[in-house]
Structures are given as C-alpha cells and as structure tokens.
Amino acid sequence: MCAMSTNSKSEKPNGAKLLEGKPFPVSKDCAGFKGVGQFKKDPLKFYRNNQLKHGNYVCNPTMFGYEFYTLYHPNAVEHVLQTHQKNYHKPDVFLKPASLLFGNGIFTSEGDFWMKQRRLSQPAFHRDHIGRMAGVIVECVEKMLARWDAKPDGSQIDLQHEMVYLTLSVAGRTLFSTDLTDHATDVGSAVREGFEVLNHRMNNFPFVLPMWLPTRDNRQFKQAKSVLDSVISKIIADRKSSSEQHHDFLGMLMAARDEDTGLGMSDAQLKDEVLTLLVAGHDTVAACLAWTWISLSQNPKIRSQMHDEHKSVLSGRNPQLADTQGLTYTRMIIDESLRLYPPAWGLPRQSFEEDVIDGYLLPKDAFISLNQFTTHRLPEFWDKPEEFHPERFLPENIKNRPRFAYFPFGAGSRVCIGQNLALLEAQLAIATIAQRYEIDLLPGQNIEPDPTFTLIPKGIVTAAIKRRK
Ligand code: HEM
Question: Distance, CA 364 to ligand 1 centroid (Å)?
C-alpha cells in the first residue's frame, strides 16, 4: 500500500539503476467502504477536495490493497502524456469496460495495433480535409435553426438534447455523408445508457458481474449497444452498396491500406472504428456547446461582447471557414468553456515501470488519475478559477501559464484526433446560432455537472430561444 510513502528509494533485484524520489503524500479519503462510497457518489468533489487537502501529488489507498495516484500538477500532465508517454498505458479498469461499447477501436486499443489504426485514420483528420467540412457544418446548424424558426418565439428547449441533435447530424454528415437526425433520440439515449453501465463497471472494477448474466444493467447495456450496432451496420452497408465516391471519413477509412501489408481494415474493425468516431465525435461536442450556452446565458456582458464580434466579422451572414480566424473572442469563449467544464474530465493511466515524476517516486504498475476538471481550476495557474473569463485565453495570458495547465483534448501521441473538427464545429455553430437566437436559461434551475463518462449538465436544462432582431 503506497509503498513509496515509507521508502523513497526503489530497489531493483536485477541491479538496474535505482530511482530516487520523494514519497507521495497519502490520503485516507478513499479508504474503506465509506471512502469508496463517497468517491463513487461525487467523484468531482472527491478530486477537488483531494487536491485542496493533500496537494498536487497524492497516493490514495482504497480497499483490498488497491490504490491510485492522483496527479494534478501541469508538470505531471506533461510527464505522463507527453515526455514519458511510453511508460504509460490506458489501464484495464478503463479499457475492459470501455471496449464493451467501443469494441477494439482507436480509443480503446493499445500498442502496435493502436498505432496502426491511428496511422490509418490520421489523414482523414488532416486540417485541410477538416476545413472542407465547414459548409456542411453550417448546413446542419441551418437545419436545426429551421426547426427552431417553426416554433413560437421564446419557446423552451431541452438544451442538451438539442445540442446532441445538432452534433449527431454534423457527425453523420461529416464522417459518413449520412443524415442521422432521424436517429438522434435513439442514438443519444443509447449512448447515455451505455455510458451509465460503463461508469458503473469502471467504478466497481474488477468486482463486476459477468456480462452474460441477465441483470437489469446488462440488459440495458445490450439493448443500447444493439441500437448503436444497427445504426453503424446500416451506415456501412449503405456505403458498400453505393456506387458513388465519397470523400468523407468513412470513405477514407475504407480506402486506407496498411503500409506493410497493403491490407485494408476488416469489416469488424471498420465497425468498431465507425462506432468510436460516431460516439466520441458527437457526445463531447454536444457537451461543450451545452456548457457554452449555459455560461453565456449566465454572463450577459460576455455574450454581448461576442455579439459585437459577430456583427463586425459577419454582419449577419453565416460564417465560413475563412471567418474562423477573425472570430477570436468566440474561440476564447469555447476555450474557457472547455476549461471549466471539460467534457473529458479525467484520464486514467497505468505505469509500466517505476518512474520519478516531478521528484516523486511512482511505483511500477501504479494506477494514475489525471484530472482536467481539477487541474483546470488550480488557483496557482488560474486566478478566480470558478469564474468564466474568456480573456484567460488571450495570447499574452496563455504565454504566462504552463502549457499543460490546460489539456481538454489530452496530449502526446494519444491527443484527441478530432480536436480540429470539434473546435471548428463549435466555433461555426456558436457564431451561426448566436446571430439568430438568444438562448436564455429558465430561472431557478440548479445546474450541476454530471460526470458519468462525459461531463454533461445534470438532468434536463431548459432554455428559452428568443429570436434576435
Ligand atoms: C470538445 C470535443 C472533444 C473533446 C473535449 C475530446 C477529448 C478527447 C480527449 C481528452 C482524448 C484523449 C483520451 C486519452 O488520452 O485517454 C480524446 C481522444 C479521442 N477523441 Fe476526442 N474529444 C472531442 C471531440 C472529438 C471528435 C469530434 C472526434 C471525432 C470525430 C473525437 C475522436 C477521438 C478519438 C478517436 C480519440 C482516441 C484517439 C487515440 O487514442 O488515438 N473526439 N478526445
């Protein structure tokens, strides 16, 4: 248990070089049934308190000899994700449950196989290719706005649901040239139900019941997975039977050939990759947009400054790719939204070998938790961290912070492959929608984050959509 807390010098029986480092401070906050129960009940609160009480490097014993290390400092983020990334992998506690949903796609694979899949997929996410998607993204926003236009002014919407509708339609069109809007409700709910079960299995790993047992959770999961599988199978089958040439992500994935073998992806692999992109590609962006509208509604001065930017850059017309350069304040708003409410709010890793991180000695096979939600709020790097201030992302302010104090898209070789697409989509969607509608939260709602897998607003957030003159 947290062996390094009593012995700061590692001992290697084979006589290899000894590593020396400080012991990790030990926290008992997650120890025993009570501690684990509190962790599961409110993990965001656990991580925040854990850092406040014990600092940026903590060893947390739990039960049955399990322990995990929480690393909040930007130096640790840089070390684990970038400079020493070869010593860290995604642990089974994450991979086993996540693979139930995502299969063996790029998000849930490791080692040589992951590298091969990443190499095959990378060209589809090249900046030039993403840039060509701008028109399609704005068309999808227009389609959503046409629905809003048909409603009486001031109508109420379920904010998260509308953003899922939008991002699924963008994912369908940009990734697979398919209109998925008819499936928005089914796919959106299946993803949420799938995430709930994954979250439960991750929190209770390895003490989880086998999937073949017909428990309520397992049945719910199978139902959700079969909805997603049938949508994916249809996307692939339609494409295979089509004689048209498509220059979208699916077309690129199907045409991709392994450099060494000359072979393309198997059907099963293609299905896993398509499902991964569909889920990873819409749920996170929907969360980012929902949080951005929430923050704008809560900060009217910032919203009005954003309107000024839209007026001066766009004068009422829809944005195009070239306009994104000028929409700098809009981009800063998105960056700030991803700081306070990072959709991917924590990254699990495990060490292969012992290591020294920022002077602390970490054992071999240690479970590590990096936590965007907490690092993005460290007062050492973020003044008044709970407040929404897009100016933090002015170039002169970025320069004065360690780079890894902010990592909403991860870092290193496993950095989010869809980062450019996500940011382009968010910028275009916000500029298009905000010129036409004011989105105001209905008063009296207590808005809290729900960390079940992606960080989304808890429950239903209701907003009124008012047409702008
Ligand atoms: C605001 C939106 C998004 C956020 C915050 C986000 C965040 C992340 C993060 C933090 C990772 C790294 C996970 C890790 O290292 O453990 C990641 C990986 C990934 N993301 Fe995103 N993502 C977003 C949008 C997208 C989009 C639009 C797509 C695809 C269309 C996408 C596809 C992926 C994939 C495939 C991976 C795995 C990459 C690999 O392991 O090589 N993401 N994302």
Answer: 27
Distance CA 51, CA 45 (A): 10
Q: Which CATH number fits domain 3-467: 1.10.630.10, 3.90.650.10, 1.20.1300.10, 1.10.3720.10?
A: 1.10.630.10
Instruction: Provide the 3-class DSSP secondary structure of residue 239.
Output: helix
For residue 418, how far is its CA from the centre of ligand 1 (angstroms)?
Answer: 6
For a pocket test of ligand 1, which of 416, 454, 456 has the largest count of ligand atoms closer than 8 A to its C-beta?
A: 416
Task: Give nearest CA residue, ligand 1 atom 37.
Answer: 107
- Dihedral, CA of residue 338, residue 405, residue 27 and residue 68, to nearest 10: 80
CA-CA-CA-CA torsion for 370, 373, 379, 385, nearest 10 degrees?
160
Q: Give the distance (Å) from ligand 1 centre to CA of residue 248.
A: 18
Is residue 352 a contact partner of residue 89, using CB atoms and an 8 Å limit? yes
Listing DSSP states for 120-189 in one string gives HHGGGG-HHHHHTTHHHHHHHHHHHHHHHHTSPTTEEEEHHHHHHHHHHHHHHHHHHS---GGGHHHHHH
Ligand 1 atom showing the smallest separation from residue 90 Cα: 16
- The pLDDT tens digits along the chain (469 residues) read 454 444 455 555 555 567 899 999 998 888 777 777 788 889 999 999 999 999 999 999 887 778 899 999 999 999 999 999 999 999 998 998 899 989 999 999 999 999 988 988 888 888 888 888 999 999 999 999 999 999 999 999 999 999 999 999 999 999 999 988 888 888 888 988 888 888 888 877 666 667 777 788 888 889 999 999 999 999 999 898 888 888 788 988 888 887 788 888 888 889 999 999 999 989 999 999 999 999 999 999 999 999 999 999 999 999 999 999 999 999 999 999 999 999 999 999 999 999 999 999 999 999 999 999 999 999 999 999 999 999 999 999 999 999 999 999 999 999 999 999 999 999 999 999 999 999 999 999 999 999 988 999 999 999 999 999 8
How far is the C-alpha of 164 from the C-alpha of 174, rounded, in Å?
15
Residue 127 CA to ligand 1 center (angstroms) comes to: 15
Q: Which residues does a 6 A CB cutoff place in the pocket of ligand 1? A: 106-107, 118, 276-277, 280-281, 284-285, 288, 343-344, 347, 408-410, 414, 416-418, 421-422
Q: What is the pTM of this model?
A: 0.94
For CA atoms 37, 40, 46, 47, the dihedral sign is positive
Alpha helices, DSSP H only, in 26-104? Answer: 32-41, 43-54, 74-78, 92-102
